[in-house]
Amino acid sequence: MRILIIIAIVILAIRLDYKRFSGRDRKAFLIALSLATLYIIRAHNDTVWFNYVEWMDRLIDPISSHIDRWLMRYRS
Amino acid sequence: MKSKLSPHQLSLLVFMNILGTAIVFIPTIATTYGKENGWVSVVVAVLVGLILLMLYPSLIMNGKGNFFDRIEYQIGSIGAKALIVLLVLFGFFMTIGNIWSLSQFISVQILMGTPPEVIAYTITFVSLYAIRSGLEVIARSVEVFFLFTMMSLLLLAIFVWPETSFDHLLPIMQLNQTNAFVGAIPVLAITYVEVVILIALIPHVNDETKVRKSFLIGGALAGICMIVVTVATIAVIGVEATTHYTYSIYRLGQNIQIAEFFDRIEGIVAFIWFFTIFFKISTTFYILMISTQYLFKVNHQKVFSAPLALLLIAASKSSLPNIFYDFELMRSTYLTLSYLVMIIVVLSIGLSRLKRSNY
Prior knowledge:
The complex is a heterodimer of chains A (76) and B (359).
Chain A: H1 2-17, H2 24-44, H3 52-59, H4 61-72
Helix pairs in contact in A: 1-2
Chain B: H1 7-34, H2 38-60, H3 67-110, H4 116-133, H5 135-160, H6 177-182, H7 184-193, H8 211-244, H9 248-254, E1 257-258, E2 262-263, H10 267-295, H11 305-319, H12 323-331, H13 333-358
Antiparallel strand pairs in B: 1-2
Helix pairs in contact in B: 1-2, 1-5, 1-7, 1-8, 1-10, 2-7, 2-8, 2-13, 3-4, 3-10, 3-11, 3-13, 4-5, 4-10, 4-11, 5-10, 7-13, 8-9, 12-13
C-alpha cells in the first residue's frame, strides 16, 4: 500500500513538473526524483543505505560528546 | 521574479521560527537544568539571543544581488559554496527534526494509533504546496496565522492563571544558580542560534534598513512568549512534573478548568505548535530549495522541490526512531551542530566583511 502511495506521488510530481522544465533542469529533476524515490522506498522497507542523522551524529561526535558530558553535570 | 517581503512579515517569520519547536520543549529543557529557576535560563537565553539577532542582519544587509551573490562577494565562490553546503546540511537536519517531532506529537497525543509517517507525509506536502506558491504566499499567510497564534497563547495564559501557584517558583536563585545559566545554552540552540539560517531571506526584504528592527521585534516577542509559557508551566504543574513530561505545556493545557465549563482545552496548545512549526518547516524548506538551486546551477527554483519533499519524509522516518531520541539528539548532536553552523557563518562572513571595510 505504501509503495503504491509513493508511486502515485511520483507520477503526480512528474505530471506537474516534467513539462515545466526543459534541458538541464529536466535532467536534474528526473535524476533527483529517481534517487529520492529509491531512498523513500528503502526507508519504508527499513533498508536505507544512508542514515542522515546517524551520519551527522558520528561526524560531530568528537565535539558533541564532550559538550554533552559537560552539560550532563548540570542536568538534574 | 524576485519574491518580496515587508519588514513586518519578516518579523513575524522570525517570531514563528523561534517559537516553532521551542514552545513545546523549552519548559522541559529549561527546568531540567535550572529546576525552579528554569525561567531564569529562558530569560538569559532571550537576552543573549537578542544580541545574536542584532548581529545576524549585519552579515548580509546592504549588499547587491541575492543572498548567494552577496556571500560570493564576501568570501569568494568556493567559500560561498562550502558555506551553502553547510547551511543545506543544517537546514535539512532541522527540517527533518521538526517534521518528525510534530508527527510524533500528533501521533502520541492527538491522533492516537495513526502512524507518524502519515502525518509526516501530510505536513511535508502542505509545506511543499506553500513553498511552491512562493515566499510571498508564506509571508501573507503568516500575517493571518500570527493573530491566531497570539490569541491561543493569550487564552492559554489567561485560562491557567487561576491554577498558578507561585510557590513552585521559590526559592528564586538560591539553589542551582550555575545550572540556571548553563540551561540557557540548550535553550539558545533551539531558538535564537538556529535562526541564523533566516539570513537567506534578508535580500528578499523590500526595505533592508528595517531588517535589524524586524529581527529584534520578532525575537523579543517570541522571547516574551517563551518566558510566559515557562513561568506558567512551572507555576501550574510544578518543577517535577515539568521535567518529567515530554510535552509539559500540553499537560499545562490539560489542567485548565474554569467554572466547570471550560475543561481540558489542551487543543489550544496544539494549535500554537501546529501554526508555528508549519511556518518554521516551510521557511527552512524554502531556503533548502533555493540553496539547492544555487548549488546545482539549475534555472528553475522548483526543480528540487518535489524530490526534496520525498527525501525529507524518508530521512525523518528512517533517522529518528522516537521522541526520546529527539531529546537525546537535541541536547548533543543538534545543539553542537547549531552552534557550529552559527559560529562558522558569523565568523566567515563577518570577518571578511570587516576586512573589506578596513581596506
